[in-house]
Specification:
Strand order of the largest sheet: 4-5-6-9-8-7
Order of helices and strands: EHHEEHEEEEEEEEEHEEEEHEHEHEEHEE
Shape: elongated
CATH topology of the largest domain: Thrombin, subunit H
CATH class of the largest domain: Mainly Beta
Strand content: 25-35%
Helix content: 10-25%
Radius of gyration: 29 Å
Distance between the termini: 16 Å
Length: 394
């Protein structure tokens, strides 16, 4: 579950641009005053000073003092950012507020990675069906996306950034809006998309905007397309009241979760639905409402089954190699999950569950769905040419 932190807890905020406090200038070191030269005309004084052997020394001393002054100024400044809003600070739909926290209290990588919002591609698979969407990176460990049908806490999603893959688990979902929070088991590769701030202003009718979606080829930069906020008369008042607004542009199904930016690189919203029509319409949720929803999403109840386990049908090579008549191949095991604690690892083959043979991935899911929370489950696993008996506490 994503932790609900409070303002001042030390978490930085991706919703505000980094800025600095002006500070009082430090007192310069005292210097012995030199008596002024005899009064001369300006021109005579200039000629005399240029010929004087101490001229170079005075200029050098002045440069040293100026350098010391600049060094004192830079060292006295203190950079601040606000704690992460929404998911971590418990903001409400009326606005996002947070007390400033000094950047010096945070690790450097937090300042670099969490001072921006970015997008990442998600992949889910159920048999031969693959779904692709885009998620908003909240920080190094949490993603927010629109509805992908991810309703089971512990369900695993692949998150891809420029060819780098990490696994994420569903932590929280909101059935009314489809907003889902994912928690990853390692840091997310940093996106190239820089968002200066997450605006709270309602998008203006006919306002030009950009669609920032994760690259479908998994390797390129973020896909950027153009869009337009629909005029007020084309908007449904019920949607507007819910913080939703219509967009027109070249939207695809994989743009669910895409970030909508204005011309100043400020985030306006997150695409929550693409409409299957020739006009390329979509519906977006205002960014502050999306984060407010995420902050109030209750913990999703754990469903029956074995959390943290993703399986697939056996390949022909593994079946022949192990002389296996059936089984389900373990594709991935989420860190710190019940499956991981039981000792399951990727590439294990599940051949029996509570004494019942497993024919394939679909049957394993069906058998696992009958396992109630807290019930011990016995698994027979084929691993590296031999069988292993494991016990799982879901």
């Amino acid at each position: 579950m994503v932790a609900k932190n409070t303002p001042g807890d030390g978490l930085p905020d991706p919703t505000e641009r980094l800025w600095v406090h002006p500070a009082e200038l430090p007192a310069l070191p005292g210097a012995r005053r030199v008596p002024p030269p005899p009064r001369r005309s300006v021109l005579a004084t200039l000629r005399h000073g240029l010929r004087h052997p101490l001229f170079a020394g005075v200029v050098g001393a002045g440069m040293v003092l100026a350098g010391a002054w600049m060094l004192g100024l830079s060292s006295s400044r203190q950079t601040t950012i606000a704690p992460v809003a929404g998911v971590f600070s418990g903001s409400t739909q009326s606005g996002i507020t947070a007390a400033p926290t000094t950047l010096r209290d945070q690790p450097d990588h937090n300042a670099l990675n969490q001072a921006r919002a970015s997008v990442i591609q998600l992949l889910t698979s159920d048999g031969d069906t693959h779904a692709v969407a885009t998620a908003l990176v909240l920080d190094e460990d949490h993603l927010m996306t629109a509805d992908l049908g991810l309703t089971d806490r512990g369900e695993i999603v692949a998150a891809v950034r420029h060819g780098n893959l990490v696994l994420a688990q569903v932590a929280q979902t909101d059935s009314s809006t489809g907003i889902t929070i994912l928690q990853v088991d390692e840091h997310i590769p940093t996106s190239l998309t820089r968002v200066d701030k997450l605006t709270r202003e309602r998008p203006e009718p006919a306002q030009d905007c950009r669609i920032v979606s994760a690259s479908p080829n998994l390797h390129g930069t973020d896909m950027v397309g153009s869009c337009t906020v629909q005029s007020e008369e084309n908007n449904d008042p019920d949607l507007a009241g819910a913080g939703l607004f219509y967009l027109q542009g070249q939207f695809q199904a994989s743009d669910r979760g895409a970030l909508i930016l204005d011309e100043h690189n400020n985030a306006l919203g997150v695409v929550v639905q693409t409409l299957p029509d020739d006009a390329g319409h979509a519906i977006a949720l205002r960014i502050d409402d999306a984060i407010a929803v995420a902050s109030s999403v209750p913990e999703t109840p754990q469903r029956p089954g074995i959390a943290g386990l993703q399986v697939a049908d056996l390949t022909a090579r593994i079946s022949i190699e192990g002389n296996l008549g059936g089984g389900a191949l373990v594709v991935s095991v989420a860190a710190d999950s019940a499956a991981a604690h039981a000792g399951l690892v990727a590439n294990d083959v599940l051949v029996e569950l509570n004494g019942q043979p497993v024919a394939g991935a679909a049957q394993f899911r069906q058998l696992a769905s009958r396992v109630r929370p807290g019930e011990l489950t016995r698994l027979t696993v084929w691993r590296s040419g031999s069988t292993v008996e494991l016990t799982v506490m879901p």
